[in-house]
């Protein structure tokens, strides 16, 4: 394995570690996120080290800067996940007017449940939507052959559903009822 591959694998490993502990299980390493999901970077590094996973501030800064999805936000000496939490946080995102259509990437095996129940946040606080089909396609492809659903966001917004957009451009809403979904013809 060459050094570039090793560095890339290390970056992915640190990113996954950060996601796990900033989104889902901060308590596993003794961290407490504030109400908006922030934690002091020095506390995060110390907690990770104490639990056998060492990384430097330079590695953390590289992960934050190199992440194409901008999964993390840094504010001075603090860091948080941009969205996707299963722990209770208030990201403080103001309501936003969505574009007419947003998109959700999924896989064929999920369609039966989605047709019955719409899009639900599952173990997260919100349903995640993309502003374009290409991004939704990439999201769906992480779990198999992707299926992209269109969401009539304009109708949802008109009818009182609230949307937020995270710093990295992910659209968030509590749920998407079936009536606002447009399924591809071949599924």
TrEMBL record:
Domain of life: Bacteria
Entries under Pfam families matching the protein: PTS_2-RNA
Enzyme class: transferase
Keywords: NAD, Transferase
Protein family (similarity comment): Belongs to the KptA/TPT1 family.
HAMAP family: KptA
Protein name, as recorded: Probable RNA 2'-phosphotransferase
Organism: Streptomyces asoensis
Gene: kptA
């Amino acid at each position: 394995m060459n050094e570039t591959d090793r560095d890339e694998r290390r970056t992915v490993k640190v990113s996954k570690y950060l996601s796990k502990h900033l989104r889902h299980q901060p308590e596993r390493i003794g961290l407490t996120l504030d109400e908006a999901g922030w934690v002091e970077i020095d506390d995060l590094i110390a907690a990770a080290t104490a639990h056998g996973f060492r990384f430097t501030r330079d590695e953390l800064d590289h992960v934050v800067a190199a992440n194409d999805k901008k999964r993390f936000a840094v504010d001075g000496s603090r860091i948080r996940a941009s969205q996707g939490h299963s722990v209770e946080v208030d990201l403080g995102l103001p309501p936003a007017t969505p574009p007419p259509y947003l998109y959700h990437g999924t896989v064929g095996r999920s369609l039966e449940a989605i047709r019955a129940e719409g899009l639900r946040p599952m173990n997260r606080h919100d349903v995640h939507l993309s502003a374009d089909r290409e991004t939704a396609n990439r999201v769906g492809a992480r779990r198999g052959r992707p299926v992209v659903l269109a969401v009539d966001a304009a109708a949802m917004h008109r009818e009182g559903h609230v949307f937020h957009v995270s710093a990295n451009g992910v659209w968030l809403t509590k749920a998407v009822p079936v009536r606002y979904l447009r399924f591809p013809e071949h599924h």
